[in-house]
Amino acid sequence: MTKLKQLIQVITRAHIYIQTHNYPDQDALATAYGLQFLLESQDINSTICYSGQIDKYNTLNMVELLKISPLNMEEVTFTKEDEVILVDSQQGNVNVKSFEGRKIACIDHHPKQDTKGYLFYDIRSEIGACSTIIGEYFMENKLKPSKEVATALLYGIKLDTDNLTKRVSVHDVEMFAYLFKNADLKILKKLESSSLRKADLNAYQEAMRNLRIYGRVGIARIGDDCSEAIIGSISDFLLSLSEVDVTLVYSYRVGGLKFSIRSEAGIIDAGKIIKEALTDLGDGGGHATMAAGFIPNLNTSQEINQAASLVEQRVLSIINKVRKDIFLMDEL
């Protein structure tokens, strides 16, 4: 039995909700959009929903050009009987707001968390993009995606694997080739040519002004109220410096500190580092090469500065310990 058929078996209602992580990116929305199309082929209606906002320019373009219709959860009234499928996220993560409704299923490519409560889950951390998993559902069930869905999924894979160069698996490459044949390449080109707004450049300027390098770790605070997308983009940008192989970038937003961490050092697991660094402060996690975290409820400048300083110290301390342990092992 295919994964899609297993999922269909646990759905009992004629309408379900597909929930992404907060502040959804292209891969999350593409995954939700593809799943919505698949469910419609099985006569199940669905609504894509999210918390926070869609705050990256090319993500907004993607929603408009590909006719995706996500709803902010503030626009939705949930009941206890509603059924929810989580995509590109997992229950209990700090970047997934919990609402009424039964979380019956989860489709994700992040490290597996607690799966209790799901009636179905397909969580594969070895996959580079969640869009790849949905692409496989189309292929294994011999269902052809629409041009818009194929374009969205292809774009999700491109973005989450950095054009098939990071965290990429054989499955990602296979699905990229499969979706490429059905995608609208003109729309794809439009999406790739519009990723920044003029206002975003201020954050890059702050990053260059505030960048500090400790060993091979680059750390920068990039001002306040930066979007999650820009925080991540700047973290990637700073990683291109020859002097660093780990970056920590953060901004104060929505009542707390949002962190993005990137690692090109094979021994440094970004997800584990940020999770440990935020112990008793907030929560974080992600992949070995890219992860994020958040500390909520910081209301004064003193609280913000103290928390930022503590996280910086912890990250550097953890990284130094990992490198020292590896060095000692090599000496044995």
TrEMBL record:
Entry-linked InterPro entries: DDH_dom (IPR001667), DHH_sf (IPR038763), DHHA1_dom (IPR003156), Oligoribo/pAp-PDE_c-di-AMP_PDE (IPR051319)
For the DHHA1 domain, which residue ranges apply? 217-312
Q: Which SUPFAM superfamilies match?
A: DHH phosphoesterases (SSF64182)
Residue limits of the DDH domain? Answer: 15-157
Recorded GO molecular functions are: nucleic acid binding
Q: Which organism is it from?
A: Anaerocolumna cellulosilytica
Q: Gene3D superfamilies under this entry?
A: 3.10.310.30, inorganic pyrophosphatase (n-terminal core)
Q: What is this protein called?
A: Uncharacterized protein
